[in-house]
Amino acid sequence: MASTLIEKILADHAGVPVVRPGDIVDVEIDARVARDFGGANVVRNILDHQLTLDDPEKTFFTFDCNPTGSDQKYAANQHKCRMFARENGIRVYDINKGIGTHILIEEGLAFPGTTAISTDSHANILGAVGAFGQGMGDRDIAAAWSKGKIWFKVPPSVKIILQGERSGHITAKDIVLNLLGRFGANALLGYSVELYGDVVDKMKLDERITISSMATELGAIIILFPPNRDVIRYCESRARQKINPVYADDDASYDRVEQLDVTTFRKLVSLPGKPHATAPVPEAPVWIDSAFIGSCTNGRMRDLEMAACVLKGRKVAPGVVLKIVPATDMVWQQALEAGIIEDLRESGAMISNAGCAGCAAGQVGQNGPGEVTISTGNRNFPGKQGQGEVYLAAPDVVAASAVAGYITTPDAIPKEIPARPVERKKTTAAVQEKDDARDGNPLEVKGRVWVINEDDIDTDMIFHNRHLAITEPGEMAAHAFGNLEGYEDFAQQATPGDIILTGKNFGAGSSRQQAVDCFRALGIAAVIATSFGAIYERNAINSAFPILAGLDLDQFKVKTGDKVHVDFGKGTMTLLKDNRTLQLQPFSEVQMEIYRNNGLF
User: What is the pTM of this model?
Assistant: First the structure.
Protein backbone atom coordinates (compact mmCIF):
# COMPACT_ATOMS: atom_id res chain seq x y z
CA MET A 1 0.00 0.00 0.00
CA ALA A 2 1.23 3.47 -0.86
CA SER A 3 2.61 5.51 2.04
CA THR A 4 3.87 8.99 2.79
CA LEU A 5 7.42 9.58 3.95
CA ILE A 6 6.61 9.65 7.65
CA GLU A 7 4.36 6.62 7.36
CA LYS A 8 7.20 4.63 5.82
CA ILE A 9 9.72 5.63 8.51
CA LEU A 10 7.34 4.89 11.38
CA ALA A 11 6.14 1.60 9.92
CA ASP A 12 9.73 0.46 9.42
CA HIS A 13 10.63 1.30 13.02
CA ALA A 14 7.42 -0.20 14.41
CA GLY A 15 8.05 -3.49 12.61
CA VAL A 16 4.73 -3.43 10.77
CA PRO A 17 4.01 -3.41 7.01
CA VAL A 18 2.02 -0.19 7.00
CA VAL A 19 0.70 2.54 9.31
CA ARG A 20 -2.03 5.08 8.75
CA PRO A 21 -2.86 8.45 10.36
CA GLY A 22 -4.31 7.94 13.82
CA ASP A 23 -2.55 4.60 14.41
CA ILE A 24 -0.62 4.40 17.67
CA VAL A 25 2.54 2.35 17.36
CA ASP A 26 5.62 1.61 19.43
CA VAL A 27 8.49 3.13 17.48
CA GLU A 28 12.09 1.94 17.79
CA ILE A 29 14.31 4.98 18.40
CA ASP A 30 17.77 5.01 16.82
CA ALA A 31 19.15 7.99 18.77
CA ARG A 32 17.83 8.75 22.28
CA VAL A 33 19.05 12.12 23.52
CA ALA A 34 18.78 14.27 26.64
CA ARG A 35 20.17 17.79 26.82
CA ASP A 36 21.49 19.70 29.82
CA PHE A 37 17.97 21.14 29.82
CA GLY A 38 15.93 18.22 31.12
CA GLY A 39 18.81 15.78 31.28
CA ALA A 40 18.99 15.72 35.06
CA ASN A 41 15.25 15.00 35.20
CA VAL A 42 15.71 12.09 32.80
CA VAL A 43 18.38 10.70 35.15
CA ARG A 44 16.07 11.22 38.13
CA ASN A 45 13.27 9.30 36.39
CA ILE A 46 15.63 6.46 35.57
CA LEU A 47 16.87 6.22 39.15
CA ASP A 48 13.54 6.80 40.90
CA HIS A 49 11.85 4.05 38.90
CA GLN A 50 14.89 1.74 38.92
CA LEU A 51 14.96 1.52 35.15
CA THR A 52 17.72 -0.11 33.14
CA LEU A 53 19.15 1.16 29.86
CA ASP A 54 18.13 -0.68 26.70
CA ASP A 55 21.26 0.23 24.73
CA PRO A 56 23.89 2.73 25.98
CA GLU A 57 25.31 2.85 22.44
CA LYS A 58 22.11 4.57 21.25
CA THR A 59 21.83 6.82 24.30
CA PHE A 60 23.40 10.30 24.42
CA PHE A 61 23.69 13.56 26.33
CA THR A 62 24.12 16.84 24.47
CA PHE A 63 24.97 19.97 26.45
CA ASP A 64 23.94 22.94 24.34
CA CYS A 65 21.61 25.09 26.44
CA ASN A 66 24.37 26.42 28.69
CA PRO A 67 27.64 25.64 26.90
CA THR A 68 29.52 28.10 29.08
CA GLY A 69 28.56 26.34 32.32
CA SER A 70 27.94 29.85 33.66
CA ASP A 71 24.75 29.03 35.55
CA GLN A 72 25.00 27.13 38.83
CA LYS A 73 21.86 25.08 38.24
CA TYR A 74 22.93 24.13 34.73
CA ALA A 75 26.42 23.29 36.00
CA ALA A 76 24.92 21.04 38.68
CA ASN A 77 22.63 19.33 36.16
CA GLN A 78 25.46 18.83 33.70
CA HIS A 79 27.59 17.26 36.42
CA LYS A 80 24.76 14.88 37.40
CA CYS A 81 24.46 13.82 33.77
CA ARG A 82 28.21 13.35 33.39
CA MET A 83 28.35 11.14 36.48
CA PHE A 84 25.41 9.05 35.24
CA ALA A 85 27.01 8.79 31.81
CA ARG A 86 30.32 7.70 33.32
CA GLU A 87 28.62 4.96 35.34
CA ASN A 88 26.54 3.68 32.42
CA GLY A 89 28.79 4.02 29.39
CA ILE A 90 26.77 6.82 27.77
CA ARG A 91 28.44 9.17 25.32
CA VAL A 92 28.38 12.86 26.25
CA TYR A 93 28.63 15.58 23.62
CA ASP A 94 29.77 18.17 26.06
CA ILE A 95 29.67 21.97 26.19
CA ASN A 96 32.42 22.27 23.57
CA LYS A 97 30.41 20.58 20.79
CA GLY A 98 27.36 22.69 19.95
CA ILE A 99 23.65 22.19 19.34
CA GLY A 100 22.57 18.60 19.90
CA THR A 101 20.28 18.21 16.88
CA HIS A 102 23.06 19.43 14.59
CA ILE A 103 25.52 17.11 16.34
CA LEU A 104 23.29 14.14 15.52
CA ILE A 105 23.65 14.96 11.82
CA GLU A 106 27.36 15.81 12.00
CA GLU A 107 28.20 12.64 13.93
CA GLY A 108 26.19 10.43 11.59
CA LEU A 109 23.75 9.39 14.31
CA ALA A 110 20.76 10.68 12.34
CA PHE A 111 20.48 10.17 8.59
CA PRO A 112 17.71 9.51 6.03
CA GLY A 113 15.13 7.04 7.33
CA THR A 114 16.29 7.00 10.99
CA THR A 115 14.47 8.06 14.14
CA ALA A 116 15.61 10.25 17.04
CA ILE A 117 14.10 11.92 20.07
CA SER A 118 15.45 14.63 22.35
CA THR A 119 14.40 16.96 25.13
CA ASP A 120 14.77 19.65 22.45
CA SER A 121 11.43 20.82 21.00
CA HIS A 122 13.25 21.40 17.70
CA ALA A 123 14.41 17.79 17.32
CA ASN A 124 12.18 17.78 14.24
CA ILE A 125 15.05 19.65 12.59
CA LEU A 126 16.16 16.16 11.49
CA GLY A 127 13.49 16.33 8.82
CA ALA A 128 16.16 18.25 6.90
CA VAL A 129 17.87 14.95 6.12
CA GLY A 130 14.68 12.92 5.74
CA ALA A 131 14.82 11.53 9.28
CA PHE A 132 12.11 11.46 11.93
CA GLY A 133 12.96 13.61 14.95
CA GLN A 134 10.76 14.63 17.85
CA GLY A 135 11.09 16.70 20.99
CA MET A 136 9.72 14.99 24.08
CA GLY A 137 9.52 15.46 27.84
CA ASP A 138 11.86 13.88 30.34
CA ARG A 139 9.44 11.02 31.17
CA ASP A 140 9.21 10.05 27.49
CA ILE A 141 12.97 10.17 27.12
CA ALA A 142 13.53 8.07 30.24
CA ALA A 143 11.05 5.49 28.97
CA ALA A 144 12.79 5.35 25.60
CA TRP A 145 16.18 4.97 27.28
CA SER A 146 14.81 2.00 29.17
CA LYS A 147 12.66 0.34 26.49
CA GLY A 148 14.35 1.49 23.30
CA LYS A 149 10.91 2.36 21.99
CA ILE A 150 8.23 4.96 22.60
CA TRP A 151 4.60 5.14 21.55
CA PHE A 152 3.67 7.61 18.84
CA LYS A 153 0.48 8.55 17.06
CA VAL A 154 0.92 8.58 13.29
CA PRO A 155 0.12 12.08 12.00
CA PRO A 156 -1.65 12.95 8.77
CA SER A 157 0.53 14.38 6.00
CA VAL A 158 0.44 17.54 3.92
CA LYS A 159 2.36 17.90 0.69
CA ILE A 160 3.63 21.39 -0.18
CA ILE A 161 5.02 21.98 -3.65
CA LEU A 162 7.12 25.09 -4.14
CA GLN A 163 6.88 26.15 -7.77
CA GLY A 164 8.98 28.60 -9.76
CA GLU A 165 12.51 29.95 -9.37
CA ARG A 166 13.25 31.93 -6.24
CA SER A 167 14.95 35.28 -6.52
CA GLY A 168 18.60 35.42 -5.53
CA HIS A 169 17.88 37.56 -2.49
CA ILE A 170 15.27 35.14 -1.06
CA THR A 171 16.99 33.01 1.57
CA ALA A 172 15.79 29.82 3.23
CA LYS A 173 14.75 31.90 6.25
CA ASP A 174 12.66 34.10 3.98
CA ILE A 175 10.99 30.99 2.57
CA VAL A 176 9.96 29.71 6.00
CA LEU A 177 8.82 33.18 7.07
CA ASN A 178 6.63 33.26 3.95
CA LEU A 179 5.26 29.86 4.91
CA LEU A 180 4.50 31.22 8.36
CA GLY A 181 2.74 34.19 6.78
CA ARG A 182 0.70 31.82 4.63
CA PHE A 183 -0.20 29.11 7.17
CA GLY A 184 0.15 30.86 10.51
CA ALA A 185 0.77 28.93 13.71
CA ASN A 186 -2.05 26.38 13.46
CA ALA A 187 -3.14 25.66 9.86
CA LEU A 188 -0.54 22.86 9.79
CA LEU A 189 -1.05 21.88 13.42
CA GLY A 190 -0.36 18.20 14.00
CA TYR A 191 0.66 17.49 10.40
CA SER A 192 3.77 15.98 8.94
CA VAL A 193 4.73 18.27 6.07
CA GLU A 194 6.66 17.12 3.01
CA LEU A 195 8.29 19.72 0.75
CA TYR A 196 8.72 19.23 -3.00
CA GLY A 197 9.60 21.17 -6.13
CA ASP A 198 12.66 22.13 -8.15
CA VAL A 199 13.58 24.85 -5.68
CA VAL A 200 13.49 22.26 -2.88
CA ASP A 201 15.61 19.76 -4.80
CA LYS A 202 18.34 22.41 -5.20
CA MET A 203 18.45 23.37 -1.52
CA LYS A 204 21.66 22.72 0.37
CA LEU A 205 21.63 20.99 3.76
CA ASP A 206 22.04 24.25 5.68
CA GLU A 207 18.95 25.69 3.97
CA ARG A 208 16.92 22.58 4.69
CA ILE A 209 17.92 22.81 8.34
CA THR A 210 16.72 26.42 8.51
CA ILE A 211 13.28 25.51 7.20
CA SER A 212 12.88 22.26 9.17
CA SER A 213 13.87 24.01 12.39
CA MET A 214 10.73 26.15 12.24
CA ALA A 215 8.26 23.30 11.84
CA THR A 216 7.40 23.75 15.50
CA GLU A 217 6.53 27.42 14.97
CA LEU A 218 4.21 26.37 12.14
CA GLY A 219 2.51 23.92 14.48
CA ALA A 220 3.68 20.98 12.38
CA ILE A 221 4.98 17.70 13.76
CA ILE A 222 7.86 17.86 11.29
CA ILE A 223 8.88 19.25 7.91
CA LEU A 224 10.43 16.40 5.92
CA PHE A 225 12.72 16.91 2.93
CA PRO A 226 13.17 14.01 0.54
CA PRO A 227 16.98 13.71 0.60
CA ASN A 228 18.78 14.75 -2.58
CA ARG A 229 22.10 13.39 -3.78
CA ASP A 230 24.20 15.97 -1.89
CA VAL A 231 22.45 15.25 1.40
CA ILE A 232 22.84 11.50 0.95
CA ARG A 233 26.51 11.89 0.12
CA TYR A 234 27.08 14.08 3.18
CA CYS A 235 25.22 11.73 5.53
CA GLU A 236 27.10 8.69 4.21
CA SER A 237 30.40 10.45 4.88
CA ARG A 238 29.33 11.26 8.45
CA ALA A 239 27.72 7.87 9.23
CA ARG A 240 30.52 5.98 7.43
CA GLN A 241 28.06 3.58 5.85
CA LYS A 242 25.91 3.11 2.79
CA ILE A 243 22.49 4.72 3.19
CA ASN A 244 19.27 3.63 1.57
CA PRO A 245 17.07 6.73 1.80
CA VAL A 246 13.32 6.52 2.28
CA TYR A 247 10.93 8.30 -0.10
CA ALA A 248 7.18 8.61 -0.23
CA ASP A 249 5.33 6.59 -2.85
CA ASP A 250 4.19 8.53 -5.89
CA ASP A 251 0.60 7.58 -5.19
CA ALA A 252 0.72 8.22 -1.46
CA SER A 253 -2.41 9.73 0.07
CA TYR A 254 -2.11 13.21 1.60
CA ASP A 255 -4.66 15.06 3.67
CA ARG A 256 -4.15 17.94 1.29
CA VAL A 257 -1.71 19.24 -1.32
CA GLU A 258 -0.66 22.91 -1.46
CA GLN A 259 1.10 24.57 -4.39
CA LEU A 260 2.91 27.85 -3.70
CA ASP A 261 4.67 30.15 -6.15
CA VAL A 262 8.05 31.14 -4.70
CA THR A 263 8.36 33.98 -7.20
CA THR A 264 5.84 35.82 -5.03
CA PHE A 265 7.88 35.35 -1.86
CA ARG A 266 9.28 38.51 -0.29
CA LYS A 267 11.88 39.31 2.31
CA LEU A 268 10.00 39.35 5.59
CA VAL A 269 10.48 39.87 9.29
CA SER A 270 8.47 38.46 12.16
CA LEU A 271 7.09 41.18 14.39
CA PRO A 272 7.81 40.95 18.13
CA GLY A 273 5.79 38.39 20.05
CA LYS A 274 4.73 35.96 17.33
CA PRO A 275 6.86 34.17 14.72
CA HIS A 276 3.87 33.95 12.39
CA ALA A 277 3.16 37.71 12.59
CA THR A 278 5.20 38.37 9.46
CA ALA A 279 5.52 41.64 7.57
CA PRO A 280 7.71 43.19 4.88
CA VAL A 281 10.94 44.77 6.02
CA PRO A 282 9.82 48.16 7.44
CA GLU A 283 10.31 51.21 5.24
CA ALA A 284 10.39 53.64 8.16
CA PRO A 285 13.41 53.12 10.43
CA VAL A 286 12.88 50.70 13.30
CA TRP A 287 15.96 51.39 15.39
CA ILE A 288 17.64 48.44 17.06
CA ASP A 289 19.88 48.06 20.08
CA SER A 290 21.24 44.61 19.32
CA ALA A 291 21.39 41.94 16.66
CA PHE A 292 21.83 38.19 16.94
CA ILE A 293 22.95 35.61 14.36
CA GLY A 294 22.81 31.99 15.45
CA SER A 295 20.45 29.37 16.94
CA CYS A 296 19.56 25.98 15.46
CA THR A 297 17.82 27.89 12.66
CA ASN A 298 20.63 30.05 11.32
CA GLY A 299 23.92 29.12 12.92
CA ARG A 300 25.35 27.13 10.01
CA MET A 301 28.29 27.88 7.73
CA ARG A 302 26.06 29.22 4.96
CA ASP A 303 24.47 31.64 7.45
CA LEU A 304 27.83 32.93 8.66
CA GLU A 305 29.00 33.34 5.06
CA MET A 306 25.87 35.34 4.30
CA ALA A 307 26.47 37.62 7.26
CA ALA A 308 30.18 38.03 6.49
CA CYS A 309 29.37 39.01 2.91
CA VAL A 310 27.32 41.91 4.23
CA LEU A 311 29.67 42.87 7.06
CA LYS A 312 33.03 42.66 5.32
CA GLY A 313 34.50 46.13 4.98
CA ARG A 314 31.75 47.61 7.15
CA LYS A 315 31.34 48.31 10.85
CA VAL A 316 28.50 47.58 13.23
CA ALA A 317 26.65 50.83 13.95
CA PRO A 318 27.61 52.71 17.11
CA GLY A 319 25.42 51.69 20.02
CA VAL A 320 24.46 48.36 18.43
CA VAL A 321 25.77 45.03 19.75
CA LEU A 322 26.02 42.21 17.20
CA LYS A 323 26.25 38.76 18.77
CA ILE A 324 27.12 35.72 16.65
CA VAL A 325 27.00 32.10 17.81
CA PRO A 326 27.85 29.23 15.43
CA ALA A 327 25.64 26.15 15.75
CA THR A 328 28.47 23.67 16.27
CA ASP A 329 32.18 23.69 16.94
CA MET A 330 32.72 22.17 13.50
CA VAL A 331 31.01 25.17 11.94
CA TRP A 332 33.12 27.46 14.14
CA GLN A 333 36.32 25.79 12.95
CA GLN A 334 35.26 25.91 9.30
CA ALA A 335 34.47 29.61 9.63
CA LEU A 336 37.84 30.21 11.27
CA GLU A 337 39.73 28.41 8.52
CA ALA A 338 37.79 30.29 5.83
CA GLY A 339 38.64 33.66 7.38
CA ILE A 340 34.99 34.37 8.15
CA ILE A 341 35.56 34.69 11.89
CA GLU A 342 38.14 37.40 11.25
CA ASP A 343 35.78 39.27 8.91
CA LEU A 344 33.03 39.15 11.50
CA ARG A 345 35.34 40.30 14.28
CA GLU A 346 36.70 43.15 12.18
CA SER A 347 33.17 44.44 11.75
CA GLY A 348 32.77 44.70 15.52
CA ALA A 349 30.75 41.54 16.09
CA MET A 350 31.10 39.52 19.27
CA ILE A 351 31.50 35.79 18.56
CA SER A 352 30.77 33.15 21.17
CA ASN A 353 31.49 29.45 21.36
CA ALA A 354 29.00 27.12 19.72
CA GLY A 355 25.61 26.47 21.30
CA CYS A 356 21.96 27.41 21.45
CA ALA A 357 22.75 30.92 22.70
CA GLY A 358 19.97 33.39 23.52
CA CYS A 359 17.14 30.98 22.71
CA ALA A 360 18.02 28.94 25.79
CA ALA A 361 18.97 31.89 28.05
CA GLY A 362 22.29 30.21 28.76
CA GLN A 363 24.60 32.15 26.50
CA VAL A 364 24.87 35.45 24.64
CA GLY A 365 21.80 36.64 22.78
CA GLN A 366 19.39 37.63 25.55
CA ASN A 367 18.11 41.21 25.69
CA GLY A 368 16.87 43.43 28.49
CA PRO A 369 13.66 45.40 29.08
CA GLY A 370 13.13 48.06 26.42
CA GLU A 371 15.87 46.63 24.18
CA VAL A 372 15.03 46.06 20.52
CA THR A 373 16.76 43.08 18.90
CA ILE A 374 16.71 41.62 15.42
CA SER A 375 17.47 37.91 15.52
CA THR A 376 17.85 34.87 13.27
CA GLY A 377 16.24 32.68 15.94
CA ASN A 378 13.08 30.67 15.44
CA ARG A 379 11.02 32.14 18.29
CA ASN A 380 10.31 35.62 19.53
CA PHE A 381 7.66 34.88 22.13
CA PRO A 382 7.64 37.45 24.95
CA GLY A 383 10.47 36.59 27.33
CA LYS A 384 11.91 33.86 25.10
CA GLN A 385 15.06 35.72 24.12
CA GLY A 386 14.89 38.27 26.92
CA GLN A 387 12.60 40.98 28.20
CA GLY A 388 12.85 43.29 25.19
CA GLU A 389 11.32 43.19 21.71
CA VAL A 390 12.63 40.65 19.20
CA TYR A 391 12.16 40.74 15.41
CA LEU A 392 13.02 37.61 13.42
CA ALA A 393 14.78 37.79 10.06
CA ALA A 394 17.29 36.15 7.74
CA PRO A 395 21.04 36.48 8.46
CA ASP A 396 21.60 38.99 5.66
CA VAL A 397 18.86 41.26 7.02
CA VAL A 398 20.21 40.96 10.56
CA ALA A 399 23.74 41.82 9.41
CA ALA A 400 22.52 44.76 7.31
CA SER A 401 20.46 46.05 10.22
CA ALA A 402 23.45 45.83 12.55
CA VAL A 403 25.41 48.05 10.15
CA ALA A 404 22.62 50.57 9.57
CA GLY A 405 21.41 50.67 13.16
CA TYR A 406 17.84 50.04 12.06
CA ILE A 407 16.03 47.16 10.34
CA THR A 408 16.91 47.10 6.66
CA THR A 409 18.08 44.89 3.80
CA PRO A 410 21.62 44.62 2.38
CA ASP A 411 20.73 46.57 -0.77
CA ALA A 412 19.33 49.44 1.30
CA ILE A 413 22.27 50.08 3.64
CA PRO A 414 22.95 53.83 3.37
CA LYS A 415 26.40 55.02 2.33
CA GLU A 416 26.43 57.37 5.28
CA ILE A 417 25.14 55.72 8.42
CA PRO A 418 22.71 58.14 10.09
CA ALA A 419 22.99 59.06 13.73
CA ARG A 420 20.23 57.55 15.78
CA PRO A 421 17.76 60.13 17.12
CA VAL A 422 18.15 60.60 20.84
CA GLU A 423 14.99 60.61 22.89
CA ARG A 424 15.73 62.66 25.94
CA LYS A 425 13.57 61.97 28.93
CA LYS A 426 12.68 64.82 31.22
CA THR A 427 13.75 64.31 34.78
CA THR A 428 12.34 65.93 37.86
CA ALA A 429 14.13 66.21 41.15
CA ALA A 430 12.04 65.29 44.12
CA VAL A 431 12.91 67.05 47.36
CA GLN A 432 11.89 65.25 50.51
CA GLU A 433 11.54 67.04 53.80
CA LYS A 434 13.02 65.11 56.68
CA ASP A 435 11.89 65.67 60.25
CA ASP A 436 14.96 65.76 62.45
CA ALA A 437 16.77 64.53 59.29
CA ARG A 438 16.21 60.93 60.40
CA ASP A 439 13.59 59.91 57.83
CA GLY A 440 12.46 57.07 60.05
CA ASN A 441 15.90 55.61 60.76
CA PRO A 442 16.04 54.90 64.49
CA LEU A 443 19.20 55.50 66.51
CA GLU A 444 18.27 52.67 68.88
CA VAL A 445 16.85 49.24 68.06
CA LYS A 446 15.78 46.12 69.95
CA GLY A 447 15.72 42.71 68.32
CA ARG A 448 16.35 38.99 68.36
CA VAL A 449 19.91 37.97 67.51
CA TRP A 450 21.34 35.41 65.13
CA VAL A 451 24.78 34.34 66.37
CA ILE A 452 26.93 33.22 63.43
CA ASN A 453 30.32 32.72 65.04
CA GLU A 454 32.36 32.50 61.85
CA ASP A 455 35.13 34.65 60.42
CA ASP A 456 35.60 35.70 56.79
CA ILE A 457 32.00 35.27 55.66
CA ASP A 458 32.32 36.48 52.10
CA THR A 459 29.85 38.12 49.74
CA ASP A 460 29.30 34.88 47.80
CA MET A 461 28.13 33.26 51.02
CA ILE A 462 25.89 36.23 51.73
CA PHE A 463 24.49 36.65 48.20
CA HIS A 464 25.71 34.20 45.59
CA ASN A 465 26.84 35.43 42.19
CA ARG A 466 24.21 33.32 40.42
CA HIS A 467 21.68 35.93 41.59
CA LEU A 468 23.64 39.02 40.52
CA ALA A 469 21.27 39.81 37.68
CA ILE A 470 18.57 40.67 40.23
CA THR A 471 18.16 44.44 40.43
CA GLU A 472 14.96 44.77 42.45
CA PRO A 473 15.84 44.93 46.17
CA GLY A 474 12.61 43.20 47.12
CA GLU A 475 13.69 40.11 45.17
CA MET A 476 17.09 40.00 46.89
CA ALA A 477 15.70 39.16 50.34
CA ALA A 478 15.02 35.51 49.50
CA HIS A 479 18.70 34.87 48.76
CA ALA A 480 20.31 36.27 51.94
CA PHE A 481 22.88 33.75 53.26
CA GLY A 482 21.64 31.33 50.60
CA ASN A 483 25.20 30.07 50.06
CA LEU A 484 26.34 29.99 53.70
CA GLU A 485 26.49 26.40 54.89
CA GLY A 486 24.02 25.76 57.66
CA TYR A 487 22.11 28.97 57.02
CA GLU A 488 20.60 28.32 53.60
CA ASP A 489 17.11 28.79 55.05
CA PHE A 490 18.00 32.02 56.88
CA ALA A 491 15.75 34.13 54.65
CA GLN A 492 12.78 31.93 55.47
CA GLN A 493 13.51 31.86 59.22
CA ALA A 494 14.47 35.49 59.85
CA THR A 495 11.92 38.11 60.86
CA PRO A 496 12.04 41.91 60.47
CA GLY A 497 14.00 43.49 63.31
CA ASP A 498 16.45 40.59 63.74
CA ILE A 499 20.11 41.43 64.38
CA ILE A 500 23.09 39.45 63.09
CA LEU A 501 26.13 38.93 65.35
CA THR A 502 29.23 37.56 63.68
CA GLY A 503 33.04 37.47 63.54
CA LYS A 504 35.96 39.01 61.69
CA ASN A 505 36.04 40.34 58.13
CA PHE A 506 32.32 40.04 57.48
CA GLY A 507 31.56 40.81 53.82
CA ALA A 508 34.96 39.89 52.44
CA GLY A 509 35.21 39.43 48.72
CA SER A 510 33.44 41.23 45.92
CA SER A 511 31.96 44.71 45.67
CA ARG A 512 28.38 43.51 45.15
CA GLN A 513 25.86 45.87 46.72
CA GLN A 514 23.31 43.06 46.86
CA ALA A 515 25.14 41.59 49.87
CA VAL A 516 23.95 44.63 51.83
CA ASP A 517 20.62 45.20 50.12
CA CYS A 518 19.40 41.64 50.71
CA PHE A 519 19.48 42.28 54.47
CA ARG A 520 17.77 45.64 54.10
CA ALA A 521 15.03 44.02 52.03
CA LEU A 522 14.64 41.25 54.60
CA GLY A 523 14.20 43.81 57.39
CA ILE A 524 17.38 42.96 59.30
CA ALA A 525 17.90 45.77 61.84
CA ALA A 526 21.71 45.62 61.99
CA VAL A 527 24.81 43.52 61.52
CA ILE A 528 27.31 43.64 64.37
CA ALA A 529 30.68 42.01 63.74
CA THR A 530 34.23 41.93 65.02
CA SER A 531 35.24 43.66 61.79
CA PHE A 532 34.04 44.20 58.22
CA GLY A 533 35.51 43.87 54.76
CA ALA A 534 36.48 47.34 53.55
CA ILE A 535 34.17 47.47 50.53
CA TYR A 536 31.29 45.92 52.44
CA GLU A 537 31.66 48.54 55.17
CA ARG A 538 31.43 51.36 52.64
CA ASN A 539 28.45 49.78 50.89
CA ALA A 540 26.57 49.39 54.18
CA ILE A 541 27.31 52.92 55.36
CA ASN A 542 26.36 54.48 52.03
CA SER A 543 23.07 52.53 52.08
CA ALA A 544 22.25 53.70 55.62
CA PHE A 545 22.28 50.06 56.71
CA PRO A 546 23.41 49.89 60.37
CA ILE A 547 26.67 48.06 61.03
CA LEU A 548 28.83 48.19 64.13
CA ALA A 549 32.32 46.76 64.60
CA GLY A 550 34.17 45.71 67.77
CA LEU A 551 32.14 42.62 68.76
CA ASP A 552 33.96 39.90 70.73
CA LEU A 553 31.70 36.86 70.84
CA ASP A 554 34.10 35.01 73.17
CA GLN A 555 33.79 37.83 75.70
CA PHE A 556 30.12 38.68 75.19
CA LYS A 557 28.34 35.37 75.77
CA VAL A 558 25.12 35.35 73.79
CA LYS A 559 23.15 32.78 71.86
CA THR A 560 20.75 32.81 68.92
CA GLY A 561 17.31 33.89 70.03
CA ASP A 562 18.46 36.24 72.79
CA LYS A 563 17.22 39.81 72.60
CA VAL A 564 19.44 42.88 72.69
CA HIS A 565 19.18 46.65 72.72
CA VAL A 566 21.61 48.51 70.44
CA ASP A 567 22.42 52.23 70.51
CA PHE A 568 24.18 53.22 67.28
CA GLY A 569 25.23 56.66 68.52
CA LYS A 570 26.77 55.39 71.75
CA GLY A 571 27.98 52.16 70.20
CA THR A 572 26.55 49.96 72.91
CA MET A 573 24.76 46.61 72.90
CA THR A 574 22.87 45.42 75.97
CA LEU A 575 21.70 41.85 76.50
CA LEU A 576 18.19 42.30 77.84
CA LYS A 577 17.95 39.09 79.86
CA ASP A 578 20.75 40.08 82.26
CA ASN A 579 21.33 43.73 81.38
CA ARG A 580 24.99 43.17 80.41
CA THR A 581 26.34 45.89 78.11
CA LEU A 582 29.18 45.67 75.58
CA GLN A 583 30.96 48.72 74.24
CA LEU A 584 31.31 48.66 70.45
CA GLN A 585 32.61 51.21 67.96
CA PRO A 586 29.89 53.89 67.68
CA PHE A 587 28.82 55.37 64.36
CA SER A 588 31.46 57.72 63.02
CA GLU A 589 30.50 61.26 62.14
CA VAL A 590 30.27 60.37 58.44
CA GLN A 591 28.32 57.18 59.11
CA MET A 592 25.86 59.07 61.30
CA GLU A 593 25.38 61.84 58.74
CA ILE A 594 24.69 59.37 55.93
CA TYR A 595 22.44 57.26 58.16
CA ARG A 596 20.36 60.27 59.24
CA ASN A 597 20.18 61.34 55.59
CA ASN A 598 18.79 57.88 54.73
CA GLY A 599 21.69 57.10 52.43
CA LEU A 600 24.46 58.69 50.42
CA PHE A 601 22.01 60.37 48.06
Answer: 0.80
